[in-house]
Amino acid sequence: MTLKILCLSNGHGEDAIASQILQQLETYPLPPGLAALPIVGEGQAYSKIAHLSIIGPRQRMPSGGFIYMDGKQLWRDVKGGLLRVTFAQLKALRYWISYETKLGHQVVILAVGDIVPLLFAWLIGVPYVFLGTAKSEYLIRDETQQLPPKSWVESFLLWSGSVYFPWERWLMSRGKCRAVLARDELTAEMLRKKSIRAYYVGNPMMDGVELDSALLSMYRSDAQMLGMQGQITITLLPGSRSPETYANWEIIIQAVTGLLETFPQQKFLFLAAIAPNLDLEPFSTLLKSYHWRVEGEIKTQTQGSILQLPTDNPQPTFFSGEGSLHFPLKLISQNRNASMILNQQAFLEFVHRGDLAIAMAGTATEQFVGLGKPAIAIHGNGPQFTSTFAEAQSRLLGISLILVKHPREVAGVVKSLLDNSDQRQLIAKNGFRRMGKSGASQRIANFLMELNWI
Question: Per-residue pLDDT for the chain (454 aa), expressed as one digit of tens each?
Fold first, then answer.
């Protein structure tokens, strides 16, 4: 009997995580058949998988499937055809599963994300595994105590004994649910106390920022670089959703301006990781209005490039790959003590080189913290990076994410980090513990292949 794994995912980040796992499943000598349904959006991440069937209709929703969306965004999705698409997807799933079953295939489901794919999996009625990427016990507690509740919802969750609502746990406890894969050990432990078959085998988010061993050694001392004299390298993560990111960028630049005023003699290198889907021009235009000026032109490689940024020389060099692209933009501050590089193809290099980050992003911030480094977040105006989201993210990441309400507060946080090596060491350990090691996609794939689905 041929095993067919159908992946359900609910958002852009979830699609990417699911895609990483399915790519690992493809490498098996006798791989299972693979299919996917991106419940929200177009599922572009799945295009990387050669032998994959996309099931059911797809439609981009106004919210992008963002889990922390407010009532207005949900209503926009409903007006945009959410209910119609949902019913059409369920109908298509039932037809496809019926067809595959008649062919003698064993169909099972990997549901990735939140309650939506989990509910879909239960409704379809075949065996399923739930990979919960959206929730963690760290939102309401840490290893030693419960956190003070910020709302009646958090009070209710603490009372119920889990970050997952009772109806979510009910779906996890059904006989067809073969396993729940939590995003950290603390969450798995609390679910097991509720008699749910929960496991922790790693967090796939960290697979997106791994380097091979030769290149990793180049960056191993980065976590200690804050204690060194000379240049401080700060990664800037404004997010990826237009037009919100442009508003986030101005808030970040206000923080940068405060840093330069607080440390007029300090050398800074700012590495701005700009999402490829955004227009670079508004970012550079805003910098010019803050008296930054373009200096020269930087060439980078289109494939496999790694950016070397020596602390005694802010001029970057690139190696590996073929062909060049006039893409990154370098600017220099008015007093020439700070340089800034904007690049839409160097996220990996920028997060590894940064000593700390000023971040107003979701997954990118978590990945940076998972490398053992501190990030500073500033309250934004949304719709994604709101004060509510930032507060939840700070609980999720603990001491690794330092939350401030105003851009001018960033300079004080940086000074505190520079002066406190013990704090930096605690932050490094905390980041590794909360986000886990790379390689989770392979471990999850192994788990799925070894699981008794019968």
Answer: 789 999 999 877 788 899 999 999 999 999 999 999 998 777 888 988 888 989 866 655 555 544 444 555 555 555 445 677 778 888 889 999 988 899 999 999 999 999 999 999 999 999 999 999 989 999 999 989 999 998 899 999 999 999 999 999 999 999 999 999 999 999 999 999 999 999 999 999 898 787 655 455 555 444 344 444 479 999 999 998 888 899 999 999 999 999 999 999 999 999 999 988 888 889 999 999 999 998 765 444 333 344 444 333 333 333 223 333 335 889 998 888 899 999 998 999 999 999 999 999 988 999 999 999 999 999 988 788 888 889 999 999 999 999 999 999 999 999 999 999 999 999 999 999 999 988 999 999 999 999 988 7
**Side-chain half-sphere exposure of 94, counting CA atoms within 13 A:** 11
344 vs 300: CA distance, rounded Å: 11
User: Which residues lie across from 35 on neighbouring strands?
Assistant: 6, 53
Q: CA 217 to CA 220: how far, in whole Å?
A: 5
**Are residues 274 and 283 in contact, defined by beta-carbon separation less than 8 angstroms?**
yes
Q: What is the DSSP letter of 314?
A: -
The amino acid that residue 191 corresponds to is: L
Contact assessment for residue 56 and residue 92, using Cβ atoms and an 8 Å cutoff: yes
Q: What is the CA radius of gyration of the chain?
A: 23
DSSP classification of residue 35: E
Rounded CA separation 299/49 (Å)? 31
Residue type, 388: T
CA distance 20 to 38: 14
Which residue is it, tokens 């590495």? 271
Q: How far apart are CA 127 and CA 12, in angstroms?
A: 24
Rounded to 5 degrees, φ, ψ at 444 are: -65, -40
What structural domains and CATH numbers belong to the chain? 3-207+438-450 (3.40.50.2000), 211-435 (3.40.50.2000)
User: What is this structure's pTM?
Assistant: 0.80
Whether the CB-CB separation of 62 and 68 falls below 8 Å is answered with no
Phi first, then psi, for residue 156 (nearest 5°) are -65, -40
Return d(Cα 361, Cα 129) in angstroms, integer.
28
In DSSP notation, 265-312 reads T--EEEEEE--TTS-SHHHHHHHHHTT-EE-S---EESSS-EEE--TT
User: Taking phi first (over 0 means left), then psi (-120 to 50 degrees means alpha), and beta for anything else, what does residue 372 get?
Assistant: left
Q: Which residue has the tokens 């701005």?
A: 272
What does the block give as tokens for 66?
A: 């963002």
